[in-house]
Amino acid sequence: MPELADPWSGGGPGPWILFVPVLWALVIFGVVTLLRRTVWRHGGPGRQFRGPQYPARAETPSPLAVLGRRFASGEIDEEEYWRRLSVLEEHFAAGPKGGAA
Description:
Blueprint: H1 2-5, H2 19-37, H3 56-59, H4 63-73, H5 78-92, H6 96-99
Helix pairs in contact: 4-5
């Protein structure tokens, strides 16, 4: 048995040849785990310079809300409001006409 572990005796490298690939696999696994827990979870190294990320929906009002605001402020008249509302309902399939076919 000692002849198999001694590479100079002609018996081959023995089971120790598996040590190096297993060691590299553990190193790679450790690096990936470390990156997943730190950098990749928080969006990468440059994310802290981009400022806060808010969903677009919270900042941008819907087209129907903009249309209603413009009608309420007097920018458009009633005829223009109904014409644009029908176009928006067809395009976005929203409102009472959107569900019925």
